[in-house]
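Cross-check.
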Amino acid sequence: MIAGLARGPIKSLSLRGRVVAISLLLVVAALLASNALLVTLLDRQLVHQLDDRLRTAATAAARLPGLAETPGETAPRVRDTVERELTGDVYAAYLDADGQVEKTLRPATDSAPRLPGLDSSAVDSRGGRPFQTAAKDGGDDWRVIAEPLDPAQGQQPEGASHGSVVVAGSLGPVNTTIRHLGLWMLVIDSLVLVLLTVIGWFAVRAGLRPLRRVETTAAAIAAGDLSSRVPQLTSRRTELGRLSAALNGMLDRIEAGDAARAATNERMRMFVADASHELRTPLFGIKGFTELYRMGGMPERADVDTAMNRIEREAARLVRIVEDLLLLARLDEDTTVDERLPLRLTPMDLRTLAADALHDLRALAPERSVTLTGPGGGPPGGAPVLGDESRLRQVTSNLVGNAIAHTPPGTPVRIGVGTQGGQAVLEMSDQGPGMTGEQAAHVFERFYRADTARGRTATGGAGLGLSIVHSLVTAHYGRVEVRTAPGEGATFRVLLPLHSDTSVSNS
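Predicted model, tokenized:
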């Protein structure tokens, strides 16, 4: 029933109204059930007490001598005994063996009971058990007890021949008591319900105050304020406390995700702008030379050859930028390393790459002083790793190009190789102008160039070399670090997991 009401009118109420209404319905149901049980038990108790009095009076009337108006001490004593038990509207009579009334001991005040046939056999079959019967002229029912007369106790009433005595008590007092009790219960229950309604309304209002805070916070979030948080008003061991903590955790993740998306969109915008700028430069060069040729600005064969050489260089530069972008895009895919960039891992030693980098630097910048040492100085050592040689050569090539492009001509360069802290180390250190901490924090970002601290030379690239270094080293489960300070040069350290193949390390 309560569930049906909750789906009906109560459903249109507020949460506070619903809680109060359902609580009151439960209280009403509990009061009705408890009152009904109490009234039933009290009615049975009163009837049982009436039966006990009737049984006592019937037994006395059946066993003691007759109640005729005879002189002596016995008759008044018997009369007092019976009268003391027959309080209220009581009917008492002697019946003969056929169940006919021989003498009325005490007549009914109002309507007498409608007695069934009470001959000797019927009285014996009832065994002195009380029974209930209606009144002759309507009204309250009667409780009746019939007891057989005991001939051994002396003289029977006049004309009696082993009959019985009937004692009946009206249920009017019992019914009146029950009606008065029901009325008082109705009044008391009504007052209790009113009081509980008032107390429950304010109690539920106070209990739901944190939910109103949650509602206010949710409205602020819906309006765009992702910094709002639900106040922790209760312990985390309560449902509301756990709800507040869960909502705040969800809001933290939403805010972090929103900030991450904003940062990603900003990086994407900058990436598209930088990529467009880098791609536009060689394209404009190629377009300019082709238009110059179409307009007849290259009459001589030597002019055409010069223009074609420039177009070839710009096209090669364009191809390098596109290949670098494709490589970075593959490394950014949301898959495993092997799916993003299949690596041909073989045992190798970083000393080979360090030696090749030494030769490349001396060939590209013969005016520079280039030395080969261990990590941080000392003699070089073995650095066995499991890696893709072609990709790691791309790493060293980009580090060499970075050192040449972003340091003044003649700047000494040191190449370090060996093991340190249980890892294979390959480092490229220059004595150039160095970078600030803020510049170093962005040095591995795409298209980033710290031009103000490290003057970009004519050979400067698109700002993708160090991003590729970082991505390729990460694909080999390693990391790349930069140590720099203004005026103290820069050192790029590649750290890779050591490989346990001793044949490689001793080669």
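Residues 224-332 form a domain with the Helix Hairpins fold (CATH 1.10.287.130). The two ends are 88 Å apart (CA to CA). Passed to J.P. for a second look.
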